[in-house]
Amino acid sequence: MHWSDEAKEVFKQLMKALPQGERQEIKESAQPRAESLAEEEGEDEVSVEATILAIIQSTPMEYHDRLRDMMAYHGIDPEDYNEAFGV
């Protein structure tokens, strides 16, 4: 499935918030999840929204604060994703 350029960039930047040792496992979970979310919405391209949701869902809870901080740093309001974070 095709990823938008913006989705690719968001994915890359948010991955940097996560510990080096955890990144590969989270990446391997988040990429197919983002594609699945896009397919569920009937889209043929992975959006930024699907990317963010997939990363949140694939990231262990202990790293959610780091992820929230990185989202805010990149101008993404983490509160828009409170439901995905389980808040």
Number of strands: 2
- SSE order: EHHEHHH
Tell me the β content.
under 5%
Structural class: mainly alpha
Low confidence ranges: none
Arithmetic mean pLDDT: 94
Order of neighbouring strands in the sheet with most strands: 1-2
Give the termini separation: 31 Å
Residue share in helices? 55-70%
How many strands, which pairing sense, and closed or not: the largest β-sheet? 2 strands, parallel
Structurally, how many domains make up the residues?
1
* H/I helix tally: 5
Protein name: Light-independent protochlorophyllide reductase subunit B-like C-terminal domain-containing protein
Region (Disordered): 20-45
Pfam families: DUF2621 (PF11084)
Organism: Koribacter versatilis (strain Ellin345)
Task: Set out the fold topology.
Blueprint: E1 2-3, H1 5-15, H2 20-40, E2 45-46, H3 48-58, H4 64-73, H5 82-85
Parallel strand pairs: 1-2
Region (Disordered): 20-45
Protein name: Light-independent protochlorophyllide reductase subunit B-like C-terminal domain-containing protein
Quick synopsis:
The chain has five helices and two strands; from the N terminus they run βααβααα. The protein has one domain. With 87 residues, the protein is mainly alpha-helical.
